[in-house]
Structure formats: C-alpha cells, structure tokens
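Retro notes (design track)

What went well: tokenization of the new backbones is finally stable.
What didn't: we kept losing track of which sequence belonged to which structure.
Fix going forward: every design gets posted as structure first, then sequence, in one message. First example under the new rule, 179 residues:
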C-alpha cells in the first residue's frame, strides 16, 4: 500500500490534504459493503477487491479497500477519508486549496475533471496524480457535503495503475449518499 499522509495543525483542528493515510472505521462488517452513519455507502462487490481495516497512521480514513492480488508484493488500494471543515465550503474552494499543495509532497497533477453524476446532489471533482519519481500514480475523487469533504483515493504503482483503475472506478462509482 502506497500511502501519503499530509497533516498540518491549525489551532485545535487537524487538517489533512486529500492524500490519504489512516484509521477510524464506522459501519457494518459486510465483506464488501460499507455503510456509514455519516449517510453514505460504498461497495466493492463488482470487483475482485476486499474491504480491509484502515491502517492506524491517521484518524481521517473511514474505510479502505485493496486488490486481493499483489503486484511485486504491493497491493493496489482505495481509501475513503473524511475531512471535517470548520465551515461550509464549496467543492471548488476545497479542491483549489489542495491543488497547489500536491507538488510540496512530491506529486504532480496530470489531470482534473469536474464530475457530473445523476445520483449525487453535490457533484464531484476528479484529480489524477503521479509521483515525481514516476513510481506511483493516484486518482482522487472529492465530494463536499455540508461541512464534510469525502476523498476517495486509488493508488498503485504507475506500471500497474491502468489495470487497478478499472476496479477503483467501480468502487468509486458505487459511492452514494443515502440521506
């Protein structure tokens, strides 16, 4: 699992960039389905991925999935993290804040796209990233709802990323707000 954790502290509130790392799991224990008391669900049933316990490096990751098969002993993974915002913020403001931060952590943005989904009232934003060393590639999809930002991050070695991305996209597309 390739994890980038970026934390800064501002007063008593810890902020984290959309790059994941982490822990804190809510929801039921179904093998692939994660249903959160925060009002959303996500599922890996249409993939060959499994839901696993999040790492304990950060309190921001709510749930995590990984490929069942490794490539060179590395498992592709997808994390879903929540950032609590001090005040209601637009998707554009949230994303803009972090786009300039990625280079500081060794990642270059190679593509961005506004997402339109019929089933999600607040549209999302897609960000594709590659590490400067050329070894890692990430895709993030960000949704902002009320005072929460939800960041889904798929990561793998660059050489295997296109293969992993198919299942990542299926899991990302299963994300939906229930309330």
């Amino acid at each position: 699992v390739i994890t980038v954790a970026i934390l800064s502290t501002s007063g008593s509130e810890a902020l984290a960039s959309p790059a994941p790392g982490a822990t804190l799991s809510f929801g039921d224990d179904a093998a692939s389905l994660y249903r959160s008391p925060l009002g959303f669900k996500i599922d890996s049933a249409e993939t060959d991925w499994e839901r696993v316990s999040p790492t304990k490096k950060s309190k921001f990751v709510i749930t995590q999935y990984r490929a069942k098969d490794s490539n060179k002993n590395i498992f592709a993974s997808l994390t879903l993290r929540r950032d609590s915002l001090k005040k209601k913020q637009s998707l554009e403001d949230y994303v803009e804040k972090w786009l300039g931060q990625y280079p500081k952590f060794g990642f270059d943005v190679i593509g961005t796209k506004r997402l339109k989904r019929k089933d999600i009232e607040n549209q999302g934003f897609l960000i594709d990233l590659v590490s400067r060393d050329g070894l890692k590639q990430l895709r993030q999809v960000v949704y902002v709802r009320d005072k929460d930002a939800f960041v889904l991050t798929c990561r793998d070695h660059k050489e295997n990323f296109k293969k992993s991305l198919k299942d990542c996209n299926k899991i990302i597309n299963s994300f939906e707000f229930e309330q």
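Added context from the reviewer: Confidence is low (pLDDT under 50) at residues 1-29.
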